[in-house]
Design a protein that fits this description.
The complex is a heterotetramer of chains A (204), B (267), C (105) and D (156). Chain B has eleven helices and seven strands. By secondary structure, chain B is mainly alpha-helical. Chain B has one domain: Cytochrome Bc1 Complex, Chain D, domain 2, CATH 1.10.760. Chain B has a three-stranded mixed beta sheet. A two-stranded antiparallel ribbon of chain B has the order 1-2. Chain B has a two-stranded antiparallel sheet with strand order 3-4. By secondary structure, chain D is an alpha+beta fold. In chain D, the strands form two sheets. In chain D, strands 1, 3, 5, 6, 8 and 9 form a six-stranded mixed beta sheet that branches. Chain D has a three-stranded antiparallel beta sheet with strand order 2-4-7, with no helix packed on it. The chains are: A mainly alpha (204), B mainly alpha (267), C mainly beta (105), D alpha+beta (156). Chains in contact: A-B, A-D, B-C, B-D, C-D.
């Protein structure tokens, strides 16, 4: 709250000196954005220039959408989740651990090869206790299965959360790994196993 | 109930041991940083930057000593403490690096594309702009950052920067705020400043450019932003682009009053 | 030619405290460049520090000393105003010598 | 012992830097170095082999050697290490890193009048034991410390 006086002063200043209206600022920002990635990969640029509806709404509401907007996002995202046709949701936790550690993929320096994308999970979550280098943007997932149970309902929940985090929490900071095609069905299953398999170090 | 709240409750039992391990790790990482602090290789870059600043270069074989960094031609001391700012001669808001490019063009006669060439070093390939930025920033060390929004274009830049800070896009749905919107968070072991919190912003924004031990080189604020967008799965951000400067103006507003410690020393 | 070292030598009690940063890539010979080619080893092998004609520290280094090396040590017998000279030579025969005047405590 | 960076710079920007500038051209090709480079020792792959290459036939663990280093290094490219020996007549201090491709990192000669103390920074390929090997009065002593190397940033 220390900053409040500054903010107020700024608001006043902006009011007096003109400044841009919110809509003007948004439009200007979009133009500036397009002009500021002009030398990069055009395909990538086209993708980031055009936000999808969820990205645009979360941007507009700064990740705190009003209830009706949030409900709409959660509904549309829940409907987008594709569960494995086999009905099987648990993969191999060992592969899950590798995916959780791996940060490869989709950066402009990552060559377009057959190497699958990583999940970057440890960047934000504590997962297996042996890994001390973990982030804290998301909640700790240590002992997840031991605490939460490993039944089918939990499996479906975890699969869905990784597939599209915004199905259960609109404007969550967590990437929509399945919805955006970052991780494959099999990769998500391996991550479900990492969290839920009783043999996984996460639950030891 | 949202997943993360549910989890927080469920995991309460496991928390004590988690915290203990986390505290030990944090303490050791802190010690690592302290042990490094007694000799910052950024010194080497500052020294090289000072030489470059004074050396006649470019088609006009002129030094940069008469460069106007905002406090008038030839004034380096304290100039970095008031950047980014509006410059009448270019009629735009400029940060340190964009201004260095301008001076290389106007004073030394470089073509704009040559003046902005090789902005980031790589192993075995030093960058003059990096060294120059280290030198100029070091000339404001210990001073307070004071970049008020006076000119209408500075106010507009702040507003544009603010919009960009929250703009989510790309395959990971990331925006700047994804990592820099809350206090006390980290990526892996790296602490993340909440850039709209003056407490964090004053400490962090003012420590760039900084020597990155993981990179073995100084990285500038432009490089920091370029790298953030790389991690965000965006394309290459143009050097000294309007978006980068708008974001700097946005951050500088919250960081104002912070003591400049640049060039800093980081992981 | 390599960039100058940054040397600091100051009295601490009856000893001279020396800290030096050297500008050097310290290539291991194991790193690959963007095209996948091995970057040849390039690293400082010998460091010698002298004061008043006497060696006060010498070192042999391998490739695992960090890029832009840092050394801190102390010796007896120096006085403010006297010089400390530091030299290095790398595996390609490149050399650099710099000196500094000992400062007060 | 830790000094702020500012002190470092202030001291460095006084008389020191002037002398340094004056010395900048003083590179004398052919200047003799006090010692050779022990190629064989720097190619060894284990503690025992390094010790042998340095001229030792055996080594005693000693509590009089102190290694100051972080338990966890945020980045293996730069790991700060201080070694201090309280063993009388310390002649050399070597730094060995068990799991690096080559074990020996550095060997410092400590003449009379120089403290048996040195700080430097080393690269570590992975979590590993590091050894400080001290030669004192012709005999070899050592101490060990494990340093964990972690992935500090966004990772790759």
């Amino acid at each position: 709250m220390k900053f409040l006086p500054g903010l107020l002063a700024f608001a006043t200043l902006a009011g007096c000196a003109g400044g841009l209206s919110d809509d003007e600022a948004r439009q200007r920002a979009e133009r500036v954005f397009r002009e500021s990635f002009s030398h990069g990969n055009r395909q990538m640029a086209a993708k980031v220039e055009q936000q999808d509806e969820v990205q645009a709404l979360c941007t507009r509401y700064r990740n705190e959408p009003p209830k009706d907007v949030a409900d709409g996002i959660e509904r549309s995202q829940a409907a987008s989740i594709r569960y494995p046709a086999s009905g099987k949701l648990l993969g191999d936790w060992r592969q899950g651990e590798k995916i959780a550690q791996d940060g490869y993929g989709l950066r402009f320096t990552d060559p377009d090869t057959q190497r699958p994308n990583g999940g970057n999970c440890y960047n934000c979550h504590r997962i297996a206790p042996a890994e001390i280098s973990f982030g804290t943007i998301g909640p700790s997932l240590a002992r997840f299965g031991a605490l939460r149970g490993t039944g089918e309902a939990t499996q479906r929940y975890v699969y869905g959360k990784i597939y599209d985090s915004q199905a259960s929490l609109a404007c969550s900071q967590m990437p929509r790994f399945g919805h955006n095609g970052v991780l494959s069905e099999a990769q998500i299953m391996h991550l479900v196993a990492l969290l839920l398999d009783p043999e996984s170090p996460v639950n030891k | 109930m949202p997943f993360h709240r549910l989890l927080a409750g469920m995991l309460a039992a496991a928390v004590p041991c988690v915290c203990m391990a986390q505290q030990d790790t944090q303490k050791e990482v802190e010690r690592y940083r302290q042990l490094l602090a007694e000799g910052n290789p950024a010194d080497l870059f500052e020294a090289r930057g000072e030489e470059l600043w004074k050396a006649p270069r470019g088609p006009k074989q002129t030094s940069l000593e008469q460069c106007d960094l905002g406090l008038g031609p030839g004034v380096v001391k304290g100039a970095f403490a008031h950047l980014p700012r509006y410059f009448a001669d270019t009629d735009r808001v400029q940060d340190l690096e964009s201004r260095l490019v301008t001076c290389r063009v106007t004073l030394q006669g470089f073509k704009p594309e040559d003046a902005a060439k090789n902005p980031f070093s790589a192993p075995g390939r030093a960058s003059d702009l990096e060294a120059l930025a280290s030198f100029v920033a070091g000339q404001s060390r210990g001073m307070k950052l004071d970049a008020p929004l006076r000119h209408p274009k500075e106010i507009e830049a702040f507003q544009i920067g603010e919009q960009l800070f929250y703009r989510r896009a790309g395959p990971h749905d990331f925006a700047c705020v994804s990592c820099h919107g809350e206090n006390g968070k980290r990526i892996r072991l790296q602490d993340l400043p909440k850039l709209t919190d003056p407490g964090d912003a004053r400490k962090i924004f003012t420590s760039w450019p900084a020597y990155r031990v993981s990179q073995g080189t100084v990285r500038t604020m432009q490089h920091r932003l370029y790298d953030c967008y790389w991690q965000m799965r965006h394309p290459q951000m143009d050097y000294a682009s309007e978006a980068s400067i708008a974001l700097e103006v946005f951050m500088a507003k919250y960081a104002s009053g912070g003591e400049i410690s640049a060039p800093g020393l980081k992981r | 030619m390599a960039d100058p070292m940054r040397i600091r030598a100051n009295m601490a009690g009856d000893k001279v405290e020396v800290r030096v940063l050297m500008s050097h890539e310290m290539e291991t010979g194991q790193r690959k460049d963007a095209s996948g080619a091995i970057v040849p080893a390039h690293f400082i092998q010998n460091v010698t520090v002298t004061h008043a004609g006497k060696t006060v520290l010498s070192a042999q280094w391998g490739t695992s000393i960090s890029k832009n090396p840092f050394v801190h040590f102390r010796f007896k017998g120096g006085k403010p105003g006297e010089k400390v000279t530091i030299s290095w030579v790398d595996n390609k025969g490149e050399r650099r010598t710099d000196e500094v005047v000992i400062g007060g405590g | 012992m830790r000094r702020s960076r500012r002190e470092f710079l202030q001291a460095g920007s006084g008389a020191g830097v002037l002398a340094l500038a004056a010395a900048a051209g003083l590179v004398r090709p052919g200047e003799a170095f006090a010692q050779q480079w022990n190629k064989a020792a720097f190619e060894t792959k284990s503690f025992a082999d390094t010790l042998k290459a340095l001229g030792g036939s055996g080594s005693t663990e000693s509590a009089q050697i102190q290694i100051t280093a972080p338990d966890i290094a945020e980045n293996g490219a730069v790991v700060p290490i201080t070694i201090e020996s309280a063993i009388p007549r310390t002649q050399t201090i070597a730094i060995l890193i068990e799991k690096n491709p080559n074990t020996l990192s550095a060997n410092f000669d400590i003449p009379d009048g120089t403290d048996p103390f040195v700080t430097t920074r080393v690269k570590m390929a992975e979590t590993s034991n590091i050894y400080a090997v001290v030669k004192a009065d012709g005999k070899y002593f050592h101490a060990a410390k494990e340093i964990k190397v972690t992935l500090g940033g966004c990772g790759g």
